[in-house]
């Protein structure tokens, strides 16, 4: 069973992903893979530097995510350049990990930009973690130390709640307690397995 998991920034998708793993799912985290494919010494990092310049590197030669983020979240064309470098590499690595999963496993692809990249049809089911934009902003400002403007720019750069909900097989409303969230995740896993 191949499942796509997505949700807007600060929707609680990472919490749901961790709960799915605790319940036995094989979770393939696109964000983690996106870091892997641009690690020092990779072809991906070399291509990012060629496209954006050496200013996106730390003194240690690693990708300076905040510096790159400031460029791509302010300019959609530049963001698309980055996505064209990273997304194909992430998909290829995800396919390798899925192929290595045990037979009969519930394989969950945790993909923040699932709606944006048009991949929903590639999965047997899609889980969307949903939260109102104001709650997302509160979480980014309070938990991640972002400015309100940066938080709103991140939300604006992603698919709308409506677009994500339109691709959902299951919607997880993450406005309640952690116990509510855990119960909903367990209910979905029971249905999927």
Automatic annotation (TrEMBL):
Has keyword Cytoplasm? yes
An example of a GO molecular function for this protein is:
dephospho-CoA kinase activity
Q: Which Gene3D superfamilies match?
A: P-loop containing nucleotide triphosphate hydrolases
Reactions listed under catalytic activity: 3'-dephospho-CoA + ATP = ADP + CoA + H(+)
Write down the InterPro entries for this protein, in alphabetical order: Depp_CoAkinase (IPR001977), P-loop_NTPase (IPR027417)
The organism's place on the tree of life at top rank: Bacteria
Instruction: Supply the Pfam families for this chain.
Output: CoaE
Known EC number(s)?
Answer: 2.7.1.24
Pathway, per UniProt? Cofactor biosynthesis; coenzyme A biosynthesis; CoA from (R)-pantothenate: step 5/5
Please provide the record's keywords in A-Z order: ATP-binding, Coenzyme A biosynthesis, Cytoplasm, Kinase, Nucleotide-binding, Transferase
UniProt entry tagged with the keyword Cell cycle: no
Q: What does this protein do?
A: Catalyzes the phosphorylation of the 3'-hydroxyl group of dephosphocoenzyme A to form coenzyme A.
* NCBIfam families from the UniProt entry: dephospho-CoA kinase, PRK03333.1
Q: What is this protein called?
A: Dephospho-CoA kinase
- Organism equals Nocardioides taihuensis
């Amino acid at each position: 069973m191949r499942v796509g998991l997505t949700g807007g920034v600060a929707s609680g998708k990472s919490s749901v992903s961790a709960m799915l793993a605790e319940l036995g799912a094989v979770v393939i985290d696109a964000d983690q893979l996106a870091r892997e494919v641009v690690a020092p010494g990779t072809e991906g990092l070399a291509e990012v530097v060629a496209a954006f310049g050496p200013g996106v590197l730390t003194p240690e030669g690693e990708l300076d995510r905040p510096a790159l983020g400031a460029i791509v979240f302010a300019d959609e064309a530049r963001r698309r350049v980055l996505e064209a470098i990273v997304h194909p590499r992430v998909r290829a690595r995800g396919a390798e990990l899925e192929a290595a999963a045990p037979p009969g496993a519930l394989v969950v692809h945790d993909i923040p930009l699932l709606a944006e990249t048009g991949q929903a049809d590639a999965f047997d089911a899609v889980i969307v973690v949903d939260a109102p934009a104001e709650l997302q902003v509160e979480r980014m400002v309070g938990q991640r130390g972002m400015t309100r403007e940066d938080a709103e720019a991140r939300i604006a750069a992603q698919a709308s709640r409506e677009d994500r909900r339109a691709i959902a097989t299951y919607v997880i409303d993450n406005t309640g307690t952690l116990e509510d969230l855990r119960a909903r995740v367990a209910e979905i896993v029971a249905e999927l397995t």
